[in-house]
Amino acid sequence: MDDFIAARSQMALSLGFHIIFSCIGMVMPFFMAVSHFQWLRTGDSNYKNLTKAWSKGVAIFFATGAVSGTVLSFELGLLWPKFMEHAGPIFGMPFSLEGTAFFIEAIALGFFLYGWGRFHPWFHWFTGVVVGLSGLASGILVVAANAWMNSPAGFDFVNGNYVNIDPMRAMFNDAWLSQAIHMSLAAFAATGFAVAGVHALMILRRRNVQFHTRAFRIAALFAAVAAVLQPLSGDFSAKDVARRQPAKLAAMEAHFHTEKRASLVLGGLPDEQGKKVDYAIKIPGMLSFLAHGNFEQEVTGLDRIPVADQPPVLVPHLAFQLMVGLGMGMVALSLLYFLAIWRQKQWLRSNWLLKLFVAATPAGFIAVEAGWTVTEVGRQPWIINGVMRTADAVTPMPGIAYSFYLFSAVYVSLSLVVIFLLYRQIKMVPELYDRPAQLVAA
Amino acid sequence: MMQYVVITYLCLAILLYLLLGGADFGAGIMELFTRSKNRNAARQTMSHAIGPIWEANHMWLIIAVVILFVGFPRIYSVMSVYLHIPLLIMLMGIIARGTAFVFRHYDAVKDRMQQLYNRIFALSSAITPFFLGVIAASVLAGHIESAPSDFLSAYVFSWLHWFAVAVGVFTVALCGYLASVYSIGEAQTEADKRYFIRKTRTMTAIAFAAGGLVFLAAYVDGVPLWQWIFGNAVGSTAVALATVSLGVLAYAVGRGWTVLPRLLAGFQVTMILLAIGYWHFPDFIVVRNGANLSLLNSQAPLATITALGWALLLGSVFILPALYYLYYSFQREAEEVAEAAH
Ligand code: HDD
Ligand code: HEM
Ligand code: HEM
Asked: Membrane-spanning residues where (chain A) (predicted)?
């Protein structure tokens, strides 16, 4: 394997791995806080058990998230030393603040996980909320760093030198807001559907129904609210991309030719040589509308981008379709769920709705991975959009392929162990908690 | 001005990582060198002591890395390139250790998997600080070439030499020493306490021997370690104080005190870092046939340093009280448990 490809694959693998754990680490504390709140308010011990069971899962994810994050902070240098040498001082602001957020998160987590029965119950509850808030803050901060790579700001690039550095302007670059909103919602949708799906499965199997129903309700509500908001935020992102990275927009929409009244391409297989999309549905004017809010406006195609600066089309386009498709599916399911809560209570007891939720278990996470593929592959060949090429940033050390194989092996085995542990956690629920409920069910 | 704030935080982060993270590593190292008869007691004491502060102890490494790549980007990138291999192995150690620790704690079924987690935890607890030591030594040893001619001299001999190996061993020994001293105060029974005191004696001896090894290796590799430490008043005083405090520590341990020995052990490690750091300051990476990279000449632009300094100061306002309260709460509780056990 080519070293450059290996370095990119290793980065993608590490980030793709980390994002799953960080989403869960960001969102689960909020679910736990709700459940914990319900317990403190109602004294229903199911909620206490639920909070404890979830917090064990979270501890596993948190540790995996923390080590994979630690690895990333070294990996940025191990793989992209030239990038970090120049970018570090510019986009470092969010990372320095993130350090604080992580620290607070780690401290609060210590209080929360080991604080049962040791502190005032509401102080204990509050530490759980702090875990969630600081996790969310660190997610937003690190995304601001990534947004800077898409939309570099806060410096002048003069004769190959980076001068007049302004870390605050770099942090609040043009892309940070749209990306931060979209990513935060994505974390809630992805984690929410994943958790709701697992508990839905348990309800369908008639295991500890009381316990799992409470869990399902909390997760599904968060998921549904986030999923319904996601297309709005996605539209905001797309308009943003159209403005700041026309090449990326063209790649993800497989828009080869600049045109007025540009049509939206649904599905299809881009043919990069032939500069066309096969088997696609086209909606005239729609792309102009979505990108610029006007059916007539011209949308820049790849033909306006110098060949050396063109991103690949196939991967971003397919990934984009996948994300949007899944997003729409999640919206549909969420609307059904809202209808069930408000008007059609009997649906909540029916199996088909639960089965749909089981089917949607991985949807959010697949959409997250797809969305990041759009953002990152769509930025190629640049590591800092328009400023530094990815190929110029890669480490001079040969043999990165071996390091990639090593990382792949480690991450695959870790994923397997985490799945195994989670399976054991869920299997042990009847023994550890919820005895009475099982008797009722029996 | 702000640059010194940033440098202070960098030194502090490295020191605290060695003291707190190091004691964590030491806990695993002690498991590795404990006969199976005592292993369970040792493990339980340690896991009780580490649990709540586990995540926080390892944040210091991340703080140090962030300060490096934001504030001293050239140092970060040179280390990343020439010390790629030891960094990579250290990362593998961090992954293995962090996950094994949590897995063994949270696996809902306690079966034979526990032995596997224990094995991985203990081994990676030794490997990680070993390579941390190797990296620290390589940064100063002057084996990093300014214009390497081939793969081996660029990426392997930059860190593979006797001095680095000896410092690696010494770091492992120091971690074990720290953990053994810390754990005296955590012991829940009189027998455990006696056991940890014996352990402390052994670990002191091992650390001493490893220290001698470092001087030997430095001599073999032509690293002027002797001069670094004894060539100036600060270095020699620091080492002298550390040695004297060993005696005080032995006395305090003999009297059954628990707090003073911890402070003294921390003091000794601080003095060792000071002795070596003082001579080199502000140099951070010593390069063969080239210009050294120093904390003063490889800085990020002023705007970045200022922002970073403020971020660190502001962060401390939130972090330090919370961290103190965390240690305090769980420390007090550990003492109550220990009292109750007597
Ligand atoms: C649950 C996950 C999820 C769902 C349902 C969606 N997205 Fe998304 N999307 C993400 C998760 C995501 C992401 C993984 O979080 C990304 C990657 C970078 C980012 O900021 O968010 C992303 C990026 C991303 C980008 C690129 C942003 C950039 O490069 O700055 C656009 C244009 C959209 N999305 C648009 C949409 C639209 C129109 C959706 C309609 C349903 C949609 N997304 C659903
Ligand atoms: C969009 C991408 C990312 C998001 C949303 C994100 C978010 C998070 C969150 C929420 C955590 C807390 C740990 C948890 O709860 O499991 C975390 C951990 C961590 N992340 Fe990321 N992260 C991202 C990418 C990165 C990158 C690129 C780096 C490296 C530079 C990084 C470095 C870290 C570190 C060092 C930790 C461990 C901190 C701890 O112990 O709490 N992350 N990340
Ligand atoms: C966690 C969510 C993220 C995912 C899943 C992700 C995914 C990817 C992927 C797929 C690539 C490879 C692109 C290619 O080479 O074709 C990549 C590259 C890269 N990403 Fe991200 N990314 C994420 C967030 C971030 C963040 C927050 C940062 C930094 C602050 C970052 C920094 C980089 C760098 C430095 C590269 C390598 C250079 C490049 O290919 O442009 N990424 N990432």
From this structure: 12-37, 58-80, 100-116, 123-149, 181-203, 215-233, 318-340, 352-372, 402-423
Q: How far is A424 from chain B (nearest CA, A)?
A: 6
Question: In chain A, how many domains are there?
Answer: 1
Structural domain contains residue A210: yes
**Pair of tokens at residue A164:** 């007049």
How large is the average pLDDT for residues A294-303?
Answer: 88
pLDDT digits (tens, 9 = 90+) for B13-50: 999 999 888 888 888 888 877 766 666 666 666 666 66
CA of A428 to the centre of ligand 1 (A): 36
A237 lines ligand 3 (CB under 6 A): no
Beta bridge partners of B294: B283
CA distance A30 to A188: 9
- B337 at the A interface (CB within 8 A)? no
- The interface residues of chain B toward chain A in range 152-211, judged by CB-CB distance below 8 A, are 154-155
Q: Is A146 in the pocket of ligand 1 (CB under 6 A)?
A: no
Question: Is some CB atom of chain A closer than 8 A to the CB atom of B70?
Answer: yes
Q: Residue A325 falls within a domain, yes or no? A: yes
Contact A309, A246 (CB under 8 A): no
CA Rg value for chain A: 23
Residue B49: which of A114, A64, A106 has the closest Cα?
A: A114
Q: Provide the whole-model pTM.
A: 0.89
Amino acid identity of residue A363, one-letter, is A
Range of the domain at A216: 3-245+316-374+400-433
Q: Is the residue at A307 inside a domain?
A: no
**Residue given tokens 């010194």 in the structure block:** B4
In a domain, A237, yes or no: yes
- Cα-based distances in Å from B34 to A360, B29, B183: 49, 9, 14
